[in-house]
Amino acid sequence: MKLGIVGLPNVGKSTMFNSITKAGAECANYPFCTIEPNVGVVAVPDERLDKLTQMYEPEKTTPAVVEFVDIAGLVKGASKGEGLGNKFLSHIREVDAICEVVRCFENSNVVHVDGNIDPIRDIETINLELIFADIETINKRLERAKKNLKADKKYQIEIDLLERMKAKLEEGVSARAIELNEDEKEIVKDMFLLTIKPILYIANIAEEQIENAENDENVIKVKEYAKKENAEVIPLCVKIEEELSGLDDDDKKEMLEAIGLEESGLDKVIKKSYDLLGLMSFLTAGKPEVRAWTIKKGTKAPEAAGKIHSDIQRGFIKAEIVSYDNLMNVGSMVTAREKGLVRSEGKEYIMQDGDIVLFKFNV
Fold this sequence. Notes:
The protein has helices at 13-21, 47-56, 85-93, 119-149, 155-170, 182-189, 217-227, 238-245, 249-258, 265-276, 301-308, 310-314, 324-330, 333-338, and strands at residues 2-6, 38-43, 60-62, 65-70, 97-103, 199-204, 232-236, 279-285, 289-296, 316-323, 343-345, 355-361. By secondary structure, the protein is an alpha/beta fold.
């Protein structure tokens, strides 16, 4: 599962990517310094793993990960190939969710591609290019459905849906903001629309804006826009995050306290991105390893077992589960068993975030 970082040129995309992944993507003060997408695999911050590591003292601890792709800056006309647009749009098509960085700070030393700061204009520039690309996709699908209608009347349902979606897109509404029932979602699933992907907005602010970020005029504008898409906004000073990413844990904690933050903004971004992708973690804990395993929300126990090994899924008998909170409250697995907090769950059990699991199987 991949999350693509997008935005206009020079809004802080590559700097944020570097800070998240420490992967050293090229970062320069001019458009298109990122042409091929940089990819970084990032550990998902999870305090539960720290506590379990203290409890079990394992040989190793393995966190869940999420993959970020730094996609080059989009400009007006990208849907028609402007500014290497076709290549960039294809990179966006390959990711599962979008993290859009929006510039909300003034700095005469950092060139803005449109000359001045206007976060809503910037968001609409990108979103409209994605919408234009989606309209083109829908037009092609409509043409095919109308040809098929002559042979099979069932295609009328698809035509009606596509025409409704096209009308909304032409009004500037992203596909993710269009209400669809389950059958309609199934119809559009294989169209890989760009604006149907879940999105998280990052409001990139200056250091002096941090203290009052939630009340910042530009941040408020971004939040009002995001609300229409049921999307979330995280205000973030990318410049500060870049500094924090180069510090060890003690210095990082000290700097966070100095600027009045409880955790790094990037940690919030990574956690929220994991959630945006529809992912969660179940945990396994023991002397050899404490580990977070990534699964889609709604996954049943046997499929979760298959994440560890296909044999465990094939020979699944049951899952012995204790919630993380219950284990922490009583202090040990032995006590959790004594108090009846360890449950046996079968094949229909839907896994919950933070379940600590021991799978029983026979092959």
